[in-house]
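pls design
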């Protein structure tokens, strides 16, 4: 148990039983480290058994202290979960099913690196109950893949998509990265079309983020590589906003597009502020008004000696997260409900202040009111960070 949470177990258990949870498991292993990556990962596979043992222990412990609550979304992320053997994956899946009630399960997502897959492994993953796969493609330009430090090429990525479909995955997502040094607009649009034609029915569009230390940032800082300008990046995202609906993928969140019925239910729960439990090094959880992040030091996490960041949200912080996260979604936020909630919490002045700060964005067409709903316009989505800062 994470130090500091012991006294909150009854309240956490009550929160976990109000509605089904999302359960996230972090597998921190990678065959190699991508040049843009700042996640908690390791290439030391000698730690694999210790990490898996600890994940199994945490599943048992949390399932017991929370009273074996229901789980409706399961997500295995990393790192590279596809580095697990089929037997290791099956055992971890079974451990989750024993510790938690998976009867309400609606979605089980597995992240995978195309360079680690084969058809037999995918078939066994599907047989173990995983019904959605998220492939880290990033780009279909082999030169850019090398620049990013990816271990696959374009042919391998498309082969992985084909294998996923043959293995029985009808829900297939692919990551597409924007803003890579040397990337051009036409190539991004071509990649999107190719991925959809190859069977992806969900695309996550990621802007390259170099705000933390990584190898690629060092190359940019020293002038060896040049990032596309903000305007060039915006042009690409704007073009994708127009092209992806023509390909049958509609936007439902700032960075995510899906065919009908293919929305990521697990990721939606983060933006809807629904409860989730994260297990593994650096994994985050939110139950009731408590939020915490496990130690990002893998050895310390394995040995139960890492410290966690524990936060208890007050009423104002919790209210601010409704627009902070909800406006990311294409459907927007019911502002009248938000105002009513603020009134019930004696926080009307806070809502008044937000409205005053949002007024210029409405006037300039970045936000729009549609009845009680406030949402971003397509152009506003491009500049959303500046707007969302209001709620931080």
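designed seq:
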């Amino acid at each position: 148990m994470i130090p500091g949470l012991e006294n909150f177990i009854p309240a956490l258990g009550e929160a976990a039983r109000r509605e089904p949870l999302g359960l996230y498991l972090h597998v921190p292993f990678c065959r190699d480290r991508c040049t843009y990556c700042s996640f908690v990962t390791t290439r030391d596979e000698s730690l694999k058994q210790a990490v898996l043992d600890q994940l199994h222990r945490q599943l048992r412990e949390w399932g017991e202290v929370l009273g074996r609550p229901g789980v409706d979304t399961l997500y295995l992320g990393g790192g590279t979960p596809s580095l697990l053997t089929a037997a290791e994956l099956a055992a971890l899946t079974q451990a989750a099913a024993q510790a938690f009630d998976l009867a309400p399960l609606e979605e089980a997502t597995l992240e995978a690196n195309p360079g680690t897959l084969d058809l037999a492994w995918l078939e066994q993953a599907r047989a173990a109950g995983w019904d959605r796969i998220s492939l880290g493609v990033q780009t279909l330009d082999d030169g850019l893949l090398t620049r990013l430090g990816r271990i696959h090429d374009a042919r391998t990525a498309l082969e992985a998509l084909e294998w996923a479909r043959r293995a029985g995955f009808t829900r297939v997502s692919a990551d597409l990265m924007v803003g890579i040094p040397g990337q051009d607009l036409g190539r991004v649009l071509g990649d999107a079309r190719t991925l959809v034609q190859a069977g992806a029915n969900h695309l996550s569009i990621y802007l390259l983020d170099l705000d933390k230390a990584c190898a690629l940032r060092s190359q940019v800082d020293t002038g060896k590589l040049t990032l596309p300008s903000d305007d060039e990046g915006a042009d690409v995202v704007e073009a994708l906003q127009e092209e992806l609906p023509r390909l049958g993928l509609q936007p439902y969140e700032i960075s995510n597009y899906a065919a009908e019925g293919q929305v990521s239910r697990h990721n939606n729960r983060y933006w809807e502020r629904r409860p989730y439990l994260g297990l593994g090094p650096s994994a985050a959880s939110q139950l009731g008004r408590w939020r915490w992040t496990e130690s990002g030091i893998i050895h310390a996490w394995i040995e139960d000696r890492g410290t966690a960041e524990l936060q208890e949200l007050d009423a104002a912080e919790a209210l601010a997260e409704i627009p902070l996260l909800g406006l990311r979604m294409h459907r927007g936020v019911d502002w009248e409900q938000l105002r009513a909630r603020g009134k019930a919490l004696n926080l009307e002045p806070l809502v008044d202040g937000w409205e005053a700060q949002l007024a210029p964005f409405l006037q300039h067409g970045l936000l729009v009111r549609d009845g009680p709903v406030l949402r971003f316009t397509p152009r506003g989505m491009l500049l959303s960070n500046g707007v969302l800062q209001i709620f931080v």
